[in-house]
Structures are given as C-alpha cells and as structure tokens.
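Entry 14. Structure prediction run on the chain below.
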Amino acid sequence: TPTKKARRFSYICYQKLLPIKLRKLIDGKLKALKSMDQEIRSYLDLATDGKLPLNHEILYYLLDVFNLHPNLNVTELIKAFAVKTSDMILVIYLTSLIRSVISLHNLINNKMLNKKYEKTEDPKPVPVPAAVGS
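Output returned:
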C-alpha cells in the first residue's frame, strides 16, 4: 500500500540521509514522548481506579491535546505528508550530492596543481646552508 511504502521510504531516508546529531535529537524527543505517554497512562489508570484524585486541570490539558490533534487517517493528508517528506529528503540528497561533486572537483584540481608543481620543480637537490655558529 502507498502508506507502507511511504513509511518505509521515510525510514530509509531517516537512517541514511539525516545527520547523526539530528537523528539523536529526534530519537531523544521520541523517547521523551513515549515516557510522557506512559506517565499519562499510569495517571489515568490510577485516577479511574480511585487511587488518585482527579485533577481537572490535567484533564483539560489532555482534552486540548486530543482536540488539537489532526485527523491523520485522511488519505489526502497522508499523501501530502509523504510528498512533503519526499521533497525535503530530495533536497537533502541533492545538497549532499552537490557537496560531494564540488569536493571531488576540488580534489582533482588540487591533484593537477600538485603534478604541475612537481614538474616545474628543479630535480637537483638544493644544499641547505649550515647555520652560523654550529
């Protein structure tokens, strides 16, 4: 299905194209979200069991979170996210490719300059004068 392909593509691009620092940052944020999810779950379980009193402020914040959460089951939205992600990953790939080509070009120019200077150098060794007082 298109959704599975988009997820697989985004995962591959996440692993291959994103810098390590950015990947570590994203992984850290995901771990924080997962731990927050566990805390919310345990609070709600304890509150429904009557072991903790209901805190209405927390419940209002949770309602706001769920009300502001977009409906991601709309196929147009899923496709739009996949296209946007693909576009961003393409830009990252192209910039990486351009940087590699420029680096290779500079390396070749440097190699040619070194060969040119090696040919123009005097093949005879130049004696180094001894320092005065030695």
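The CA atoms of residues 34 and 74 lie 24 Å apart.
Filed with the rest of this week's runs.
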